[in-house]
Amino acid sequence: MDVYLKFTQEVLLELSLLHLYLIDGAVHRVGRKETAWECRDAMWSMVIAGIDPDPAKAGRLTEWAQSYWEEIHPHNRDGAYINFMMDEAPARIRATYGDNYDRLAAIKKKYDPENLLRVNQNIPPS
Questions:
Q1: Computed from CA positions of residues 118, 122, 124, 125, in that sequence, does the dihedral angle turn out positive or negative?
Q2: Can you tell me the distance from the alpha carbon of 3 to that of 7, in angstroms, rounded to the nearest whole number?
Q3: Contact at 8 Å (CB) between 51 and 16?
Q4: Residue 125 burial by CB count (10 A; 0-12/13-18/19+): exposed, middle or buried?
């Protein structure tokens, strides 16, 4: 919470945000292997968004968001909530799906061997 509060004080513009979402209820009643998303033991999810209509401010907003991410990340698990992710490295996508990744890659190979559905957080066919 100290890191979260520090960066909320540094929010540069009213459109920028730091959201925390409680992960509760049905998420914890479903097994890790029953759906693609494995992070069923997580308690919180977070969104960091540096937003401003002026492109001249993009550099400073990116710096602010990356600084927050770097400071908070040691307190995070390796995976994430896939719908909150942007340009992520393949290792982070793999971590998000955890032990389910190889199963999903096999399904992708069967139903999308040409990797037509490759936008966003792609799982290449195995």
A1: negative
A2: 6
A3: yes
A4: middle
Read off the pTM: 0.70
8 Å CB contact between 65 and 48: yes
Yes or no: say if 82 and 121 are a contact pair by the CB < 8 Å rule.
Answer: yes
**What is the tens place of the pLDDT at every residue in 32-88?**
888 888 888 888 888 888 888 899 988 988 898 899 889 988 888 777 888 888 777
What value does the mean pLDDT take over residues 83-110?
87
The number of beta carbons lying within 10 Å of the beta carbon of residue 2 is: 7
Measured CA to CA in angstroms, residue 98 lies from 5, 27, 53, 85 at distances of 30, 16, 36, 15
Residue 85 · residue 55 · CB < 8 Å: no
Residue with tokens 């693609």: 36
d(CA 48, CA 38): 22
